[in-house]
Design a protein that fits this description.
The protein contains twelve helices and no strands. It is mainly α. It has a single domain, classed as P1 Nuclease (Orthogonal Bundle), CATH 1.10.575. The N and C termini lie far apart (about 60 Å).
Amino acid sequence: MKHRTAALVALILLVTFAHQAGAWHDKTHLAVCRAAGHDLWFNCAAPDIAKLKAHSREAYNHWFNNIAEVEVTPRMVLEQVERYNKANRRLDSEGHLPGAIIGALRAYKKDLQRGKYALYHLVYCGHYIGDLTMPLHMIAYDGFNKKHHLANDGIVEETILDEPEKITQYMYEIKLGDNSFEDDLAREIARIANLTRKLGYKLRAENRVMTQQEACVQLGHSASLFQAVLRHYKKPAPPPDIQAEK
């Protein structure tokens, strides 16, 4: 009987999270990576495409359904890293987005050391950092979340790629030390994750979709953090047209 109950619970979790919606739509992800200065910004929607074939192995990297509504800590972020590219529906039903950011960078470093083409790992990192600021990806996937998810995903999708200043005006400097990179990054991921989940709770309490301004503030956090990561790896600065607008 216990085995049948466990199997039923696992099936419910599978059905529930198999329908987990995507985060920001394609152009929004592209706009974040472009504002951050990633030279492969035009690939930054690709991780969502990968979910079509990688299924839960990839999908669990894109969200953290914080069912317990606890504060995200740097330690929690680092503990999630080992779950990167893994899907355990029983033990990891909430997903592990915060840890996936560092997981992608460890994979980048590993492939560099092996002499492999490693840049696509930065694409994944940039995409996850974008997902980090989508409020409904940092709170429980409940009835409110399901009802409002799609509208929040596309709140700035139609214009944001043509209006980069709406992101860059909210960007700021984030410092990640060379000798304390992962610890500093985990701290910044936790800080932004907590800002994001609090906005998610606010939207839920007010039963509404976020405003375009709220979305752009969130995207500014993502672009700022990804820019700091790129600087650490000595990647190109933002394109001149975007720098001029800042």
